[in-house]
User: Fold this.
Amino acid sequence: MGFQFKGREIETDANGFLVNQADWSEELAEAMAEAEGITLTDKHWDIINYLRDEYFNNNGNQPNTRTIIKAMSEKWGTKVKQKDVYELFPLDPSKQGGRIAGLPESKRKGGY
Assistant:
């Protein structure tokens, strides 16, 4: 599988996750999100950057939705609800957000 970007094929697995994380860029993330009907806002980027930071700076940690909600509540200074993050990434904030963030597919079960 692959994703067409700037005239080249970016290799992905069967579920659309990047095979080579070095292919990731903010520009690619925007194109991947757009292909899924999402226009990235500052809140999307907060989640994407949080997921990338956790993965690359915390021993490959891939937070579930509950952990994302907690972290975004702190970052945004307001009580974030599950529906708030699902409005940003409707197919699952941890999985869809992780895919757009260029992370490998999480093998854990459940999102919340």
In short: The chain has a mean pLDDT of 94. The longest strand covers residues 2-5. Helices lie at 26-35, 42-57, 65-76, 82-88, 93-100. Residues 66 and 112 are 5 Å apart (CA to CA).
